[in-house]
Every structure is written in structure tokens, then in C-alpha cells.
Design a protein that fits this description.
Number of strands: 12
Radius of gyration: 21 Å
Structural class: alpha/beta
Strand content: 5-15%
Distance between the termini: 24 Å
Shape: globular
Helix content: 25-40%
Bound molecules: (2R)-2,3-dihydroxypropanoic acid
Order of helices and strands: EHEHEHEHEHHEHEHEHEHEHEEHH
Strand order of the largest sheet: 8-7-6-9-10-11-12
């Protein structure tokens, strides 16, 4: 079975694929145009897909009818039209759990970086403006006992809530599709309406999967309802926020600050005015960028394809419906 791997992944994944007898096709140059990418996809049976530059939509599936399975090198699958994949019986694998700690670490880091104006202060040092001790300049805020609102309390949200509870004794409130009993029991998390989440949170951190109905859910109307001391943290997908509205809310004092590992659009342009703000910290989508998480992702993606190649169910599957047709 031929597998197209569009970028090099950690060795553990490559070795597993090769040991299982899969023929790995790597591009000569990793920065593929859409047409080059399609050409590779047309010549293989399955894909180990890295990044979300290319979309798996109806057009893709019509063009590449040879594709039988896709293993994503990500937990998120918002770049895949899952309904189309199900219609065509194409399993789509993803990489849950292995990146929950790393991604929540970045949310935790951003929350603190914004609370203590770390980016701004780092820039000051870099620009030669360390200055003398000033009792009133660039004061941050403490997080002890504050309320952390989690939008989407799954595995990553749980890890963020756990750290925040233990480090700062934060009160945890959350809004989710379903109640999270474990978080309620272990962390005293309280389920609230979306309205209560946005109006009561001192820190609001997004950890939900991104779906079309979430598009720019965090917009002017929502920011206006948030507390003026609120810190907005997004490590999920940039599409959750209306970037212009967020910029406005950050400049007119509607909210206190923002920590973003994801932007809308991505990548963020280096002349984006958001980068000039002292109350913002932006990172280039590095949530899962640890050796541990990336090794785990490589292993899971390879395991998904190996299982598929043996006629077995993918162990980590974003559309398990494909298997219910058969059983
Ligand atoms: C994920 O796994 O979804 C991360 O955002 C990397 O794309």
C-alpha cells in the first residue's frame, strides 16, 4: 500500500510505517502547490496528512477517487469534510490525547504571559528600553482565585483547568456540548450557559473542536459582554474569533488582553497591528510542538494507517461511522 506523507515526521512514525511494509512516498520539496499536492495524492492509496494548508472537500474526493484512507497528523479535523468522507467510506484518523498536555501548557503559558505582559516587557528589553524601576508602569494582574471559563471542556480543556486549579486555585466554569462529570468531581468545575461563561470569566480559554457553526463566535457582541479585566486565550482554531473585533476590543479596553496560539487568518502577517499591542501575546500555532507530543502524533498516525492496511479499524478515528456500515 502506498502512503503519501507530505512532510517529514518524527522517526518513530516513519519506522512504524516502513516496518509494516507500507511504501512511503515523500515529496522532493515540502512546500507543495495545490496542483503538486494533488498529483501526489492521485498516485497513492492513503495519505498521512500534515498541516491544514490543503482541504479535504468534495472537490478533493472527486479528484482523488483512489484515496482509501487519511491519517491526519493532528487532533483537529476541521479541514476535512467529514460527511463527504463518510459517504465514500473513507476513514479519517486523528491524534487525540498525545498532545493534550502540550497544548494546554501553551494555553496556561499564554494566560500568564498576558496577565504579566510578558511579550511587551520582552520587547522593551530587546529594544533597549529596560528603564528604571517604575511603581506604576506595565502592571499585570494576578490570577489567584480568579474564574477560568473553558469553552469546550474535553481532554485539552481538562488539562488546562487542572493546571489552573492547582497553580492558582482558580474557579472553573465551563460550557460544552455535554457535561464533564470528571471535571465537576475532580476540579469542582461548574457547567454554565454560554452567556454566563462570557460574562463571568476572568480568563476565557477556548478548547473546543472547530465546526462551521463556531465561525467567529467570539465577535464584537461577545467581547462587549466580557469583563473589562478578561483575558481571552485561544489555542484551538483562529476561526473562533473575528480578528478585527478582537483587535477593537483590545484597543478600546473592552477586554484586558489576549493570548493567541491561533489567528484568523493563519499565518498572521508580520505587519498585523495586533502585534503592536502591549496586551497581546501571539505564538505561531505551536500547541503540539514538543518532542513528546510530536512523537506521539507520529505513532498514532502510523498506527492508524497500519491498522487500515491490515483491514482493521483505525484505533483513533474521527469518523467511526464508516465502520458501522459493516457491523
Ligand atoms: C491539532 O492537532 O489539531 C493541532 O492544532 C495541530 O494542527
Amino acid at each position: 500500500m502506498k502512503v503519501f506523507v507530505n512532510k517529514m515526521i518524527p522517526e518513530i512514525g516513519m519506522n512504524l510505517l516502513k516496518q509494516a511494509g507500507l511504501e512511503v512516498i515523500l515529496p522532493e520539496n515540502e512546500n507543495l502547490t495545490q496542483e503538486e499536492w494533488l498529483q501526489y495524492c492521485r498516485s497513492v492509496d492513503v495519505i498521512l496528512s500534515i498541516g491544514n494548508d490543503f482541504k479535504y472537500d468534495k472537490k478533493f474526493f472527486d479528484t482523488c477517487q483512489n484515496i482509501k484512507a487519511i491519517a491526519l497528523y493532528s487532533v483537529g479535523f476541521d479541514h476535512v469534510d467529514i460527511n463527504e468522507a463518510v459517504k465514500r467510506n473513507i476513514p479519517v484518523g486523528n491524534t487525540p490525547d498525545v498532545l493534550s498536555r502540550a497544548t494546554s501548557d501553551v494555553a496556561f503559558l499564554l494566560m500568564q504571559a498576558v496577565a504579566r505582559k510578558a511579550s511587551y516587557n520582552f520587547q522593551k528589553v530587546k529594544n533597549g528600553n529596560w528603564g528604571s524601576f517604575d511603581p506604576l508602569h506595565a502592571l499585570g494582574q494576578e490570577l489567584y482565585g480568579k474564574t477560568l471559563g473553558i469553552f469546550g471542556l474535553g481532554r485539552i480543556g481538562f488539562e488546562m483547568a487542572k493546571k489552573s486549579k492547582h497553580a492558582f486555585d482558580m474557579n472553573i466554569i465551563y460550557h460544552n456540548r455535554n457535561r464533564n462529570e470528571e471535571a465537576e468531581k475532580e476540579l469542582g468545575a461548574i457547567y454554565v450557559s454560554f452567556e454566563e461563561l462570557i460574562t463571568s470569566s476572568d480568563v476565557l480559554s477556548i478548547h473546543a473542536s472547530f465546526t462551521p457553526e463556531h465561525k467567529e463566535l467570539f465577535n464584537e457582541e461577545v467581547f462587549k459582554k466580557m469583563k473589562s479585566n478578561a483575558i481571552f486565550v485561544n489555542t484551538a482554531r483562529g476561526g473562533f474569533q473575528n480578528q478585527k473585533d478582537l483587535y477593537q476590543a483590545l484597543t478600546d479596553g473592552t477586554i484586558w488582553g489576549a493570548g493567541l496560539d491561533v489567528t484568523n487568518p493563519e499565518p498572521m502577517s508580520s505587519d498585523d497591528p495586533m502585534l503592536e499591542l502591549s496586551n497581546v501575546c501571539v505564538l505561531p500555532h505551536i500547541g503540539s510542538a514538543t518532542m513528546e507530543a510530536r512523537n506521539g502524533m507520529a505513532r498514532l498516525a502510523a498506527e492508524n494507517l497500519i491498522a487500515f492496511s491490515r483491514g482493521e479499524k483505525m484505533p483513533y478515528c474521527a469518523n467511526p461511522e464508516v465502520y458501522s456500515h459493516h457491523s
